[in-house]
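Sanity check

After download, print the first record. It should look like this:
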Amino acid sequence: MYKKLISFDLDQTLVETTRAHSSAFRYAFQKKGIKVNEKVIWPFIDGRYSEEVILSIAKKIKIKLNEEQVTTIKKLHHFFLRKTHKYAKPISGAEKTLKELKKRYDLALLTNCAKEEAYFLIKASKIPKKFFDIIVLADQVKHPKPFPDGILKAEHLLHVKSDIHVGDSIYDVLAAKRAKAISIAVLTGQASRSKLKKYKPDYIINSVADLSNLMKKID
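Expected structure tokens:
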């Protein structure tokens, strides 16, 4: 029997990680002698990959960073996440939803996090990795979201078409569309309903807790 494949974003879709990431970035900048208030960092924890977050913060506080500095801050962010991942917690209803969907679908986890930080966050959230048939990380693809590389890699390795992608950001919506998958946006991230609507996802729901009911309608 053909099983549909549903791919999920990690941050703010299945796991609340804003504080974990923003604290790690603050420590990373601080280690380089740059003071940044976490309130400045929070808006940029919206699905972007690490380099883009760093450059966005630098632009906001009006400083220039060279490539070497960006790479160093990125590595420091990964290092400090070992400490700050304790702030990560599962989105309400995420584990129950994954457990229900696992009975009927193949599930993939796609994230713009690198391997070490992704596993720290998954561990902190206590969401069992066994729910996922495959986990595709940012450092396993040439181009992270908003490109469709992660979705296409999951398809290739599982030998099945990715029917649906679920995420909280505009980058998830764009990746799903480019992979010709149904896009389901959740409102547990930084993006508002009005902002998400501009990118025309197929569905918008409050959180993954509402996904099982939506899947009954889609099926």
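If your output differs, re-run the checksum step. Summary of this record's structure: The first helix runs from residue 18 to 31.
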